[in-house]
Design goal:
3 helices
Length: about 80
Amino acid sequence: MRKLWDFWKNKKYGKKSMTGWFLLTNALLWGVIGAALWGVVSLVTLKGISWLIIFAGYAIVFPGFLGGVLFAMNAETTLDELEIK
């Protein structure tokens, strides 16, 4: 997540725009990871398309969006503290 955060931080967007793009790309990347995990699991079991939606959906919501929000809150607090000093 740090490399993705730094990538959007270097794009010279505003704080809200940068955070939004970070959350979107982070969630999408985690969705791809969830879909890839389903691809491996579906070789043995859970072959339905509904399982793909479940695997990708949980990966998007929990580590993607919520993890990204917690990371962004922590990173923004660190940025604010550095700018004050």
